[in-house]
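Progress report, Aim 2. The chain analyzed during this reporting quarter is listed below.
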Amino acid sequence: MPLNNYGVLKGRAIGRRLGSGSSPHYQIHIVEEAGTHYRIAINVRSQLAPSELMYYIKPYFVHPLTSTVEALPSGFRFRTY
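Predicted C-alpha cells for the chain:
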C-alpha cells in the first residue's frame, strides 16, 4: 500500500530513551545541521500482533538509496502526492 503523505528527516542521532508502560514508545533525539532538534517516537508494542520490534545494526550500510539520502539537505522535508 503506497503512502500518500510522508516526510523524510535527515540528521544525526544524539540520544535515545527506552519506552515503558502499556504503550511504550522508543524515542530517538535527532539534530540537523542548522541545530533544529527532533524527537522521533517509535511504537514498540503495537496492539496488533506481531508486536515485537526487530532491528539490525550494520556499521557500514550500502544500498542503492544511500546516495539519494546523502544528497538530501539536512532537516525535515514533507512530501505530498
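The helical segments are 66-71. The chain has one domain: 5-80. These observations will guide the mutagenesis work planned for the next reporting period.
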